[in-house]
Amino acid sequence: xxxxxxxxxxxxxxxxxxxxxxxxxxxxxxxxxxxxxxxxxxxxxxxxxxxxxxxxxxxxxxxxxxxxxxxxxxxxxxxxxxxxxxxxxxxxxxxxxxxxxxxxxxxxxxxxxxxxxxxxxxxxxxxxxxxxxxxxxxxxxxxxxxxxxxxxxxxxxxxxxxxxxxxxxxxxxxxxxxxxxxxxxxxxxxxxxxxxxxxxxxxxxxxxxxxxxxxxxxxxxxxxxxxxxxxxxxxxxxxxxxxxxxxxxxxxxxxxxxxxxxxxxxxxxxxxxxxxxxxxxxxxxxxxxxxxxxxxxxxxxxxxxxxxxxxxxxxxxxxxxxxxxxxxxxxxxxxxxxxxxxxxxxxxxxxxxxxxxxxxxxxxxxxxxxxxxxxxxxxxxxxxxx
Length: 386
Hints:
The chain has two domains: about 1-185 and about 370-385, Glycogen Phosphorylase B (Rossmann fold), CATH 3.40.50; about 200-370, Rossmann fold, CATH 3.40.50. It is about 45% helix and about 15% strand. The chain is built from 15 helices and 13 strands. The protein has helices at about 15-30, 70-90, 100-110, 125-130, 140-155, 165-175, 200-205, 225-235, 255-260, 280-285, 305-310, 320-325, 340-350, 350-370, 370-385, and strands at about 1-5, 35-40, 50-55, 95, 120, 160, 180, 210-215, 245-250, 270-275, 290, 315, 330-335. The chain has a seven-stranded parallel sheet, with helices on both faces. It has a six-stranded parallel sheet with strand order 10-9-8-11-12-13, with helices on both faces. Helix 6 links the parallel strand 6 and strand 7 (about 180). It starts with a strand and ends with a helix.
């Protein structure tokens, strides 16, 4: 099949949403589909993925997740490219990532008088995301307007694919009756796998040899739980000096570095900034334990799969999304409780045998249930049954 993917985002910028877009496109191509991605003007080109990019008249440069006023005009250029690509590429399916992608995909389908299926790849609530980023105020009339728009966009799709079962249940509760399929985020288990510590990288980052390294990889934002993570580190400082935290990701590095300094925990943390997705496995394997205090209730938590594939025992808050991925092998702290998050780390650190057992369980779970080879086959079956 010829599939026109719509990615209203600066693809590729080494973050979870983009990893899903890239891996879906890459693995669908391996299964014989032809993929073309319509996306924003900036972002890194990924080998083997053909993209059509918009123009960038005002020099848009934001790679981080979140709303931006620039997107209003960029999306009009994206719409023009979608229409142009429909006419030249002649796709069999429109595969829209995010609500914005489905919105413009629906309008482009109408504008070109085509009847091919429109699939929405749902990665979380649009309204929830822009509220979490404080682009709009919770409870405002603007938020209610976005909720109605979000519901309307979802209704235009012929099929909805969700990145978590929790996301599918949320849509069902809002009254949608369109066909829905949970397609949990995957991981390339041939790339992300347990490996010996890269001593050169370890020394380059000046990590302490005598400490247990706790790794975090993701966006540095409040809804990813980074503020709570720093609170946990402050709590740990008063109890033990056995941990050092390797915090990898962007944006807001300077903000969180200053916050760590204000909390007097800067000596317990190494901030790396943005990590190339192709190098992430090397960095993750520097860790002994992984952590993800994400508090967004509407999004998946794909970083857990990378942790799992690397065999990293993982500490998270107790949520249905986290349990769906980690199963009985996760280490669960009370919801949004930074002290319990710290206490779970302390307990796990004192149990080397349990850590080894969990490591093996998580790796096996990633390979058998969440590899992109497995997930892509599920998506291929969905597409063939449209």
